[in-house]
Every structure is written in structure tokens, then in C-alpha cells.
Give the backbone structure.
Amino acid sequence: MLVTHNTKINVSIEKIWDTLKSFDKVESYMPIVSSTLVKGSGQGAKRICDISLGTQIYKIREKLVSLDDLNHLLAISVEDGPIQMRGIIFTIVLEKIEEQKTDVTITTNVENSLAVAFSQNIFAMMGTGLKKLYE
């Protein structure tokens, strides 16, 4: 099942792109993330995010599998974390709408209904967090 979330943010595409492609400091836009550790840079970089979901604490291990500066696209695989997210690959694509307006689209394909709702919530949280960071 395809899961997609769109957020329009009133800031330049370059500012959002710089934040996302650094693959670091996820806690600046995701309220459930308390810290981020990145190993490596660019495509192939790995990160560990400490997150809290209610009373549960997780370490999410991710890998940056694609980084396309020209098309403002990242693809991230979730190597370990909550069962609903394990093994998924999600993409983030930025599109310039105007000079100070950017469309952020986050997409994944999942196989079970638990992962659909979980992904929708996480993607909405990410979009809202990026919007709050810049507006």
C-alpha cells in the first residue's frame, strides 16, 4: 500500500534541503527524537535516532540509500526500529513552488495495515516539524 504525505512550507527549497541532506539533528524537527548519531556522510551514511513513543523508547537505525541533489530527493531505509517500520524505504522529495515556498512529499510502500497508520503518523509529524522549524 502506498503511503504519501504532503506539506507545503513557506521557506526556500535550499534551507529544507540543507537540513534533510545533512542526515543529522533530526530532533530539530521531529519531537519524538531526542538525539541523532550519524556515521559517514552522503549516500551510504548511517544514523541512529533515539525516539520515545509514549512510554516506549527505541533506537531507530537508518541508512541513506539515495541522495540526489539535482532532484532534491532522499531515500532512507529503516534497518531496525519499531516492527511497523522495519525494512521500509521511504523517500522525501522537495519541489520548489515559489521562491519562498516548498512542497515536501514523503512516500513509502508498506505491506501491512499497521505500518500504514504508523507511517502516516510519522510522516505527518515530520512535515509538521519541518514547517514549525522554518515558519
